[in-house]
Specification:
The chain has 391 residues and is an alpha/beta fold. It contains 15 helices and 14 strands. It has a seven-stranded mixed beta sheet, with helices on both faces. A five-stranded mixed beta sheet has the order 1-13-14-12-11. It has a two-stranded antiparallel ribbon with strand order 5-6.
Length: 391
């Protein structure tokens, strides 16, 4: 059955954060604005998910959720069949989103004043959550080489003070779209072992790997990490169900899981009923949709890279996963404010400014490509026009 990603959904004035939150976040809006910032897709959810939601509505009961066993089975089966990772149902916990899960892990394994390591630039919520919980961020700046990010663990080791309690790892990486190699993942794990750090691995983009590649879970790449590993993931990115606000924590070690449970019981309650049913439907019956959307996104990125990357002074980082493109404007010689002004006011495109992703973000922007292709091509044409004086 053909799956339609080309027909635009009417998302304006539907409580859609990406479309209806522009004025609040950017201080400016326009009816013709193309939103390329919030990390969700402009696509209708997979039919099995929509069917599951309609069944819940028809039942008419919206109370607290129980009996997670059927959801656990769907997660276990999905991890095994799609990612080659054999997990136990007892390892699974559910949170009100992956960022909430990050907060639970930080609470469980550190105290106020402790330090948490991140590889910068990285998903901006890492910074917000760590600082909100009165911990300190230790940045390890990624090195761009051969069009991709690389970690510099030697430099990181030199700046450690002994106050670090955990390392937050993004696999696949946001905003770089990087799939880390087995060797790189093992090096991170060995680093955590050597410095006695809990490894918090954010793998929420696991189901957005382009065709021809396969997500490599941190746990399978380096099994020696299991005694110190907490994995955060969800169906939300891969299946466009972020509104269900339900994250998954996978904690293989009994001692770590007990600490997570203590924090979870203090900070959370019953999982979101609709979010849990979305996970079950996505991971039980969403294979066809998942395969189709990854093909579509890969082609969107190819078109985007070839055209935006051809503009003088602008380069597009190669990526193997996600729908979030990291674009370097520094070769134009423009200040960050000029880049943002041209995109927002001239091109009428709302994209994420690079500096919010931390050190290494200056001169960059992150663009969400998960939209109907015709709309993305319109965005490309607007950027080409907005920066036409460079040609």
């Amino acid at each position: 059955m053909a799956i339609d990603f080309d027909t635009p959904l009417p998302l304006k004035n539907t409580h859609c954060s990406k479309f209806d939150g522009i004025a609040k976040s950017f201080g400016y809006d326009d009816p013709d604005m193309i939103p390329m910032w919030v990390a969700d897709m402009d696509f209708a959810a997979a039919e099995p998910i929509r069917t599951a939601m309609l069944a819940e509505v028809d039942r008419g009961y919206f109370g607290y959720f129980a009996q997670v066993e059927s959801v656990n089975r769907a997660v276990v089966d999905w991890m095994s069949s799609n990612h080659g990772w054999k997990i136990e149902p007892t390892w699974l916990r559910y949170t009100h989103g992956v960022v909430a899960g990050l907060g639970i892990a930080i609470d469980a394994f550190s105290d106020p004043g402790d330090e948490i390591v991140v590889f910068a630039p990285v998903y901006h919520a890492f910074y917000r959550k760590i600082r909100h919980m009165n911990r300190k961020v230790v940045e390890s700046e990624l090195v761009e080489r051969d069009g991709q990010f690389h970690m510099d663990l030697d430099s990181l080791a030199k700046k450690l003070t002994g106050s670090e309690k955990a390392l937050a790892f993004c696999n696949p990486h946001n905003p770089g779209g990087r799939m880390w190699s087995v060797e790189e993942i093992r090096a991170v794990v060995d680093f955590c072992v050597a410095h006695d750090l809990i490894l918090i691995s954010d793998e929420i983009h696991m189901d957005l790997v382009f065709p021809g590649a396969r997500h490599l879970p941190t746990a399978t790449a380096a099994p020696n990490c299991l005694p110190r590993l907490v994995v955060l993931t969800a169906a939300s990115k891969g299946f466009n169900t972020a509104g269900g606000e339900t994250g998954i924590m996978i904690v293989p070690d009994d001692t770590l899981r007990s600490a997570v449970d203590d924090s979870l019981n203090d900070r959370s309650g019953s999982p979101n009923r609709f979010g849990m049913m979305m996970i079950k439907a996505a991971f039980s019956d969403g294979h066809e949709w998942s395969n189709a959307v990854r093909v579509y996104l890969a082609e969107n990125f190819r078109i985007w890279r070839d055209r935006i990357g051809a503009l003088p002074g602008i380069s597009v980082m190669d990526m193997q996963a996600t729908y979030l493109s990291w674009v370097d404007f520094s070769g134009t010689g423009m200040a960050q404010s000029e880049i943002e002004h041209r995109l927002l006011k001239t091109a009428k495109i709302a994209a994420s400014p690079g500096p919010v992703f931390g050190t290494g973000g200056k001169g960059h922007m992150r663009f969400n490509l998960a939209m109907p292709r015709a709309r993305m091509i319109e965005a490309i044409e607007r950027i080409e026009a907005a920066f036409s004086d460079l040609q």
